[in-house]
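agent> Task received from the user: take the single chain below, predict its 3D structure, and emit structure tokens. No templates, no multimer pairing.
agent> Plan: (1) validate residues, (2) run structure prediction, (3) serialize to tokens, (4) report one or two observations.
agent> Step 1 OK, no nonstandard residues flagged.
tool_call: predict_structure(input=
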Amino acid sequence: MSIKLLPAFLAAVLLLFPFPAGTRPARAAAESKAPVKTLDANGFVKAAKKGEMGVVTTALKDGQDPNVKDTGGSTALIEAAKEGRLEMAALLLAHGAKPNEGDAKFGGTPLIWAALAGRTEMVKMLLDKGADLESRERLNGLTALLAAAVKGNTETVRFLLDKGASVQTRDSEGRTALMWAANGGRTETVKLLLDRGATLEATEEDKGMNALMTAAMMGRTETVQLLLDRGADPGKKDREGKTALMWAAVYARPGTVELLLKKGAATKAEDNKGNTALALAKSSPVKTEAKKKVVKMLSKAMTPETASN
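)
tool_result: status=success, residues=309
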């Protein structure tokens, strides 16, 4: 290449690879010294939730408070716990995240949220780092064990029991883990809790309902079967005088009604207002074909003398 052609060659190179506007070498050097924009609370918590280790590490090195809460009242550790992000949780804990800091809305700690999500390994880590096994959220007074039972997270329930959580623990309304699991039809969790000594006939404080009644009310037929097999009394009444059959009738649960009838549930029993299961089924606010099926079944099961009640 001749010397005379060099200027033309440089011009061509600059046309092909120009400096971006405003980034000539001198200006670029000056701009490289500009301060890095730090994450706000929402961005920090979101990054932890998504498992963005580099982003969170940088933010912590830049002085970010690991316990800052986003606009929803959650912390980075809570969000990491929900998602089961063990590496992220370890990072946050190493930088001072509080294992017993609850969210602003419910007061649920990372341990409770992890149990609710069935994150057993996360639960283990948090307990190892000082999380309180018996801490409670504010809405229902749920502990980690109760939260795990709500969702039927059987392995998490097992682990928490092994760690010393009481199988008889109750929430703010007197509901046990067995009641919560039965309510949700979490049959495997119900089985585990019964195997660990849960009281079959324990009742909650409001209506005095037990696990069988709440399972029947919700139409959890498989769970009702298990509870009956374990000795639950279908004739037991709550404070309103209602039996499991009556609750199944009120909410039009044909499968559960059929099972209870096969198991000998009393059709003539009356609640405190003199209503039989049939009367309750007829007056049920449920407007479905299921209601018709329940009324038909109960009518057939009633004796001629009581069928007209």
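agent> Step 4: summary for the user.
The domain at 40-165 is CATH 1.25.40.20 (Serine Threonine Protein Phosphatase 5, Tetratricopeptide repeat).
agent> Done.
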